[in-house]
Amino acid sequence: AGTHQWYDGTPHPWEFKRVWHLEPSLTDPDTVYAGVEDAALFKSTDAGLTWTELSGLRTHSTGNRWQPGAGGMCLHSIILDPVDPERIFVAISAAGAFRSDDGGTTWTPVNKGLRSEYIPDEDAEVGHCVHNIAMHPSRPETLFMQKHWDVLRTDNAGDLWHEVSGNLPSDFGFPIEVHAHEPETVYVVPIKSDSEHFPPDGKLRVYRSRTGGNEWEALTNGLPQQDCYVNVLRDAMAIDSLESCGVYFGTTGGQVYASADSGDSWAPIVRDLPAVMSVEVQTLR
After folding, report:
1. How does pLDDT run across 81-103, given as a tens digit for each residue?
2. Which residues face 13 on adjacent strands?
3. SS3 sequence, 109-174?
4. What is the separation of C-alpha 1 from the centre of its chain, rounded to a whole number of angstroms?
5. Residue 12's domain spans which residues?
6. CB within 10 Å: which end of the chain, N or C, has fewer?
7. Mean per-residue pLDDT for 122-134?
8. Residue 63 belongs to a domain with what CATH number?
9. Are the CB atoms for 117 and 163 separated by under 8 Å?
């Protein structure tokens, strides 16, 4: 029911085309959430046999102002609060970030502090192209965001964001992850621009901040540092929970790189895949 905006600003009916993200419950093995395109959130309580839309999100009063990003209008990120089981965060391209405090029944845009030069109102309540969000489970009030330009953080569950791009060579990119044991250690992969989806200077570099942003160091040991023109997509980076914290990412060139030492050094573990869309890690004990 209803419409959202199309690329040219005209009304467009909602269409469910594909699933972008699955997020299992932190407490119930039979409960899972699905983010889809066009942007909507579904929930299953029977291990995926049946699904129910949490329609309060799509029917939010701002929904008719949501627009697709370059890759479509997708709900690509779902974060469940490990302390408050009623709190859910989602991110939508290109609508922004939203929070529910009642298990997905009602939603609030949490985009204050975001600025986007490509929309008529740079500080609008919705319309921002959020690429990814991340949280450390020990600090659910603090989230990090990679936006279509800008890396940001919030320390009050999204009520206010501030930019922490600092000395990054580009603040455009897709993935963002937080170290398993260090809640102020954050990883991003800068990409040159929204029209040139490859690393600045053709050098594949993961950037790490140990200060929660602003101060970033390039992690290059083992990564190609010339003529590397690949992208790292929003779901193509993952962190494991081992003591030294492994970091993994895949590229559109079909390579998967792994670091067993929190990013200090890297090695390719796969080289000849198709474009890597997603990387997931499981720790077997």
Report:
1. 999 999 999 999 989 999 999 99
2. 3
3. ECCCCCCCCCCCCCCCCCCCCEEEEEECCCCCCCEEEEECCCEEEECCCCCCEEECCCCCCCCEEE
4. 27
5. 1-163
6. C
7. 89
8. 2.130.10.10
9. no
